[in-house]
């Protein structure tokens, strides 16, 4: 029976600003869902307050409301669209579910005759109310850890007395494990109990006996109205119980389960999904398994919505969970839908993987000075990467190479820990770099049994590590000249980078590259096809690997490659890798628009990225997707294979930009602004000379490479000084110092963290107003797409400031200087494409802080505020297809739009929350106001008087 005829108009609730625990996986899910509904001719109405995402692009839904996620906004929308038949809340994470429940309690859905689809209220309530959930599980015979609910401090104390320690405290109705903790000692219990009760919206906590060291698994399920259930993916956490799944290294398919236990777990998951309610859509179920022969299974929780792992599972299998879940919610059954990858089989099947994926979270602890860097039940990561390989070892290496933390993979780069006590301590207390420390421990000779005893990580994973180290040891016995083809091929098949092999052989990376090319050890590309190549896949979604040559009967040798190169003209777009503070979802938005614009210009589009949460890595965004690390070796091999016209680097943030020099050196064309111009903007000396030539003022500055040089400079520049390293992201390492002691301490720390870096010392313009402009330039004409004034004073990072579009307090003289400076700089830098310039305004003089000739964090915000597709225009300019004067710019904005930063400080209770030149916000929302008399603007403006931290 096909879709329901009575659903013609659907409201979709988004997930709002990105916070730790709820990132762009839900933007990906929401975008897929909207496309899925529109395919069926259903009118879509979206509410979401996040301007940085593709989901809130005007092309994604028939009506996009960039409004706060409140019941007040919901009522406004329902009044404006009485035709809305149903609401789909399962694509917007916990935020959307919580809002849906609140609207239900207030009777809003009933008042407007709106049906809930994709889930039912009972299912949400049962899964969120831990006591109800526990009772239901016991009723259906699913085991759970001993646990009890407390709604008061006294009750909590009684439970602790009964169960004994260690205990787990989990707060009800929270996100990303907020308020959850493991308590080992009675003296820590009171504080954690109070915090959990306080942070839960219903002031309830569940206290369980801690299953420390048990193995953890997640299953992703889909169910239709005929009660067909499929399990899309089984994910195993390499980290045992005790670390939030969002902070765990995860592997698919599950590696260390016996088939008997896996079948039992599947049956339990299906039984659980059927028991919580009668609804059509997606579900995520988490289990713990005892690490002994018995393999006892205990249910942890079930989420009746697409989850953080659904995006990962979709990318891991090629099965678009959110898209299919949406179709099921509007009445389709699984057997009526096509497999989106093969187009020839039905969606009523379970994907088969003939490869392994490894997800590693990406943390940003350096932004939260004084933060507790240990991992536990509260999620702390800000993004993630995924590696795909033919083996666990290859996938693990590719994931570690994707993290962008100056590591080349596991070991073999001289950056490992060597101190026994430090290694034991890091293994004992899980920390963000444990994935590397395990290798260091094996290298130091610590037995696997000891590592297993401390970490409780399954022996199978540890043996995989040990094999890698054995191979490294073997290779170090040779030189580049004597290394055999078999050994080199084995190293490549296990994921070692050329750089790592060069480190083992004590030679140059280029020598390893030359040797493997001569020996015909080249990357080949394999399809992610959902069915282990049993059916032909129609979707070009690839990962790389290395294979041994096959010899034909006639003696010719070849290696099988699934990626067929066409003779069309091609453009590569480099993605931005894992999300982190300073480089988030805005660049995914820019990459997607870049791909679509290049396709409109007749190019075959090729996307390279390793972030499983994003729309840019959806299997049908670009003509070809290479799910690979944004890491030189991988990119260069793809470019050699595809031979594109050029590479777009200015849409993928600092990640892609950093690769411009290498691309340029290897003679690969950079589309748009040249490497020399990009470098000119980053090289403070050259940039300042250019400003001098154009009579553009900038704060007095100097460049230092040692603490002594910095001290000498301070004598001529006058305090306060703004100190910052070159080529960094999100203001990393920036600080305002007011005397020589502070200066010396900061410079020494910086040079220890980032050796050989050039430090810039600027005289800090105290009390200045900060503004920024984004523009498109074609080398001849410049069009300023937006000028924003920051509400906070100069010195607070632009990503942490409330930015007002258009400016509210800059006179005509200042505005004219901003326009003149922007045009002069864009032309002097030979910009072709986008540019962002930041200004400090003091005594009516506009000084230049910096210029970035690339897409900036604010471009999506301006595009949404003015309802104009600026990235599309800029890409066509970069490709030389259009000039600035070919576009009819028509910005539409009544009143003002304010970009408001959103922080995730609640994950780091002891951190200094003051703002300064280093960015700390994880996301943003947009606020539209009609006039400056608006109360919300008044409140924001009053806050600018708060003092500035260093």
Helix/strand-derived category reads alpha+beta
Integer-rounded radius of gyration? 28 Å
Strand content: 15-25%
Strand adjacency order, main sheet: 14-13-10-11-12-15-16
pLDDT < 50 stretches = none
> Percent range for helical residues?
25-40%
What is the number of beta strands? Answer: 35
**Oligomerization state:** single chain
Ends apart, CA distance between termini: 64 Å
Average of the residue pLDDT scores: 91
Question: Shape from CA axes?
Answer: globular
Biggest beta sheet summary: 7 strands, antiparallel
Please count the helical segments.
Answer: 31
Describe the structure.
The chain has about 950 residues and is of the alpha+beta class. It has 31 helices and 35 strands. The strands form 7 sheets. Strands 14-13-10-11-12-15-16 form a 7-stranded antiparallel beta sheet, with helices on both faces. Strands 33-32-29-30-31-34-35 form a 7-stranded antiparallel beta sheet, sandwiched between helices. Strands 17-18-23-22-21-24 form a 6-stranded mixed beta sheet, sandwiched between helices.
